[in-house]
Amino acid sequence: MKLAPSILSADFSDLKTALRQCKEGGAHWIHVDVMDNQFVPNLTIGPPVVKSLRPHTEKVLDVHMMVMEPEKLVESFAKAGADFITFHIEATEDPDGLIDLIKSCGCKVGISLKPKTALEEIYPFLDKIDLVLIMTVEPGFGGQGYLPGSSERISKLKAYLNTNCLERVLIEVDGGIKLHNAKEIIEAGADVLVAGSAVFGTENPVETIKAFYQIKEK
Ligand code: DX5
Ligand code: ZN
Fold it and tell me: Would the CB of 88 count as within 6 Å of ligand 1?
């Protein structure tokens, strides 16, 4: 299991501290929530911020684009230093073109889907991508509760990957993940856990990150 703390819940005036905390805690990835006030009702981070973060961390920069017309931003995020670029299946009519574009920019490709979107919508693209980001809250804001039925969705995707020789595709889970439900989510099949408020909303983010890594599967 890898943890991807989401800087959405960090202090935007002091992101260097958030990166330092991720390093000290041993987090593998940094999750960057990009919102455009169209695909979701919130407005957050763009390529210039990713560019500013890049020299201050060696971690994987995991860019989660919650935007309409994601193809317009891919090159900028790649140039800024993104490692993974994830788009929403609901936000494009040309997933194949977008996958090829992200790859041509030298980045790994993720597809995300909202809680109410059928898993089957992404099945045709699984053999071309590196990661599926399953949303377990409605995208837009940190600090929401993990939606019931989400672990069953993760298990269903995991089983599909296993039976179709697609085990190399990572399952990342995003929304409402806390120390108390992380074990269930890992056991359902998650490879990467995103945690925003659970990390940066606590007194001691470094210790919280370490605690996530101490969770043991059955
Ligand atoms: C929500 C974002 C999440 C968010 C998670 O739209 O995609 O990454 O930061 O926040 P928590 O962990 O607080 O639910
Ligand atoms: Zn996210």
Answer: no
Residue length, the chain? 218
83 classed as catalytic: no
Domains of the chain from N-terminus onward: 2-217 (3.20.20.70)
Task: Give a three-class secondary structure readout of 71-102.
Answer: HHCHHHHHHHCCCEEEEEHHHCCCHHHHHHHH
pLDDT at 218: 53
The residues facing 111 across adjacent strands are: 87, 132
Instruction: For 76-131, write each residue's pLDDT tens digit.
Output: 999 999 999 999 999 999 999 999 999 999 999 999 999 999 999 999 999 999 99
Tokens of 23: 């390093």
* DSSP secondary structure letter of residue 43: B
User: Does the annotation count 174 as an active-site position?
Assistant: yes
Residue 4 Cα to ligand 2 middle (Å)? 9
Least distant ligand from the CA of 139: 1
pLDDT greater than 60 at residue 176: yes
